[in-house]
Amino acid sequence: MGDLFSLFINSVFIGNILLAYFLGMCSFIAVSKNIETALGLGFAVIFVLTITSPVNWLIFHGLLAPGALSWAGFPGIDLSFLKYITFIAVIAALVQAVEMIIDKYSPLLYASLGVFLPLIAVNCAILGTSLFMVERNYTFMESIVFGAGSGTGWMLAIVSMAAIRKKIAYADVPKGLEGFGITMIVAGLMAMTFMMFSGITL
Amino acid sequence: MLNETSRYKEILVKGIWSENPVAYQVLGICSALAVTVKLSTAIVMSLALTLVTAFSSMIISSMRKKIPSNIRIIAELAIIASLVIVTDEILKAFFYDISKQLSIFVGLIITNCIVLGRAEAFALANNPVDSFIDGIANGLGYSLVLIAVAFLRELLGTGQCLGFMVIPDFIYDSGYQNMGLMVLAPGAFFIIGLLVWLKNSLAGISHEKR
Predict the structure, then answer these.
(1) Interatomic CA distance for residues A149 and A4, integer angstroms
(2) Could you tell me if A79 and A87 are in contact, meaning their C-beta atoms sit under 8 angstroms apart?
(3) Domain presence at residue B9
């Protein structure tokens, strides 16, 4: 239990998927102009990540890993090279499902997320989490916690960025640095504050 | 013939400089930053991405009349993912060390917005040859940023260039120190922010809306 908790804290703060591994930057820059939208997308990402990570774990360890097909009589088969295409298909299907659910129950959120929801499918953070989960040999429970932790870390980063950008709108930013440039500098400062957590050992 | 060449040139210039995917359209910076600690990984990553973008654009463009528009994203992703698998296997076979360092980031080319973005914005409306050139151009535009960032990070962070010491010892003796910050994540953010500033100032006008 303690291990899972420290994995969660680790994936939220120290190994923040956005600020330490740069995953999910595209939507981070595009959607962080407004706090409500950022919050909505953040929750969508947590939700999708918490599902896709364990589902992909099951698929990888049940079908693709070397020797995983021994129950079907093929112990020598290694399909792990298929992981990219399988993971992206699972993610795309799940995102489609989430989109339909949000459309049905929260049209307001659906309208404000607009074009960005399909973008979750190609959000590097989602695929990256699944690939990290395979690379780091997490167990099934760990894959759930890691998915949820990465999502929470991503949401934390995008919501704070949206809040900062709201303030920046009133600031006098040098010409040419407005918009994308200053966002990157602020992200750098945020990454520095998040690195402060790496001194904490759990 | 002259007309053709100038059109290709225009596509190239657009992709590499005037509409540079990373600096101008803010696409594909996800992986652009994570692999830039060392120049060698950045170069391999750029090559991989340029080839994947070019070939995926070409294939998607040649199939654009066959793909029904409501399932086009899935179809595009399948094509891109297959190309990435091929790239990954080639890297594992010939550049094993670098493929270990790139770890998951080769796989993340699938979700790199440049590849899908070019497929959506260009390949679906243009012929295969134009799309191929557009893919190369955007790949090179991305490579330009990636290699610039990697060069600065490696130089300032470790004093090396492609693994060789380039900052002479007497500079260290006179008190120069490597900037540890550059090797860490924040360094990449700062450099890309400053590069965008430079590019916008060179163009004379800021394209970004506030």
Answers:
(1) 10
(2) no
(3) no
Highest mean pLDDT among A32-41, A172-181, B5-14, B148-157 belongs to B148-157
Write down the pLDDT at residue A115. 60
3-state secondary structure of B52: helix
- Whether residues B197 and A177 touch (CB distance < 8 A) is answered with yes
Domain-located, residue B13: no
Q: How many CB pairs under 8 A join A and B?
A: 141
- CA B163 – CA B3 distance, rounded (Å): 44
* B194 at A interface, C-beta within 8 A: yes
Number of structural domains (chain B) is 1
Tell which of B197, B198, B205, B207 to mutate to test the A interface (max A CBs under 10 Å): B197
Let me know if residue B93 belongs to a domain. Answer: yes
A3 is written with which tokens? 């291990």
Q: Kindly state whether B107 is in contact with chain A, defined as any CB-CB distance less than 8 angstroms.
A: yes
The answer to whether ipTM exceeds 0.90 is no
Residue closest to B134 by CA, chosen among B144, B146, B147, B121: B121
Residue B138: domain span: 40-209
The residue in chain A having the minimum alpha-carbon distance to the alpha carbon of residue B206 is: A176
Residue that has been written with the tokens 């260039």 in this structure: B161
Minimum CA–CA partner of A191 in chain B = B186
Q: Three-state SS for A9?
A: helix
Chain B residues 12-31 with CB within 8 Å of chain A: 23, 26-31
Residue B117: inside a domain: yes
Residues of chain B with pLDDT under 70: 1-2, 22-32, 203-210
